[in-house]
């Protein structure tokens, strides 16, 4: 399992305290949303977006078909978006 902290790490250059606060709040919201995914979804999201792997490469690692990876990622990202949109409302 990939730790959630790894998913939230980015290299960014923030210029002021307001930008830093906004970044930190957004990061916390994302980590909370990611924690609500199941382990398989979270791992596939990490491989896709943190490691930058293709669906084919992820399928080989996870022992799934490429189309299964695509469906799982689509549903996981849709759930993340819905949750993050709900938090903004």
UniProtKB/TrEMBL annotation:
GO biological process entries: DNA-templated transcription initiation
Domain RNA polymerase sigma factor 70 region 4 type, chain residue ranges per copy: 27-80
Name used for this protein in its record: RNA polymerase sigma factor 70 region 4 type 2 domain-containing protein
GO molecular function: DNA binding; sigma factor activity
InterPro entries: RNA_pol_sigma-70_dom, RNA_pol_sigma70_r4_t2, RNA_pol_sigma_r3/r4-like, WH-like_DNA-bd_sf
TM annotation in the entry: none
Signal peptide start and end residues: none
Taxonomic source organism: Pelotomaculum thermopropionicum (strain DSM 13744 / JCM 10971 / SI)
Pfam families: Sigma70_r4_2
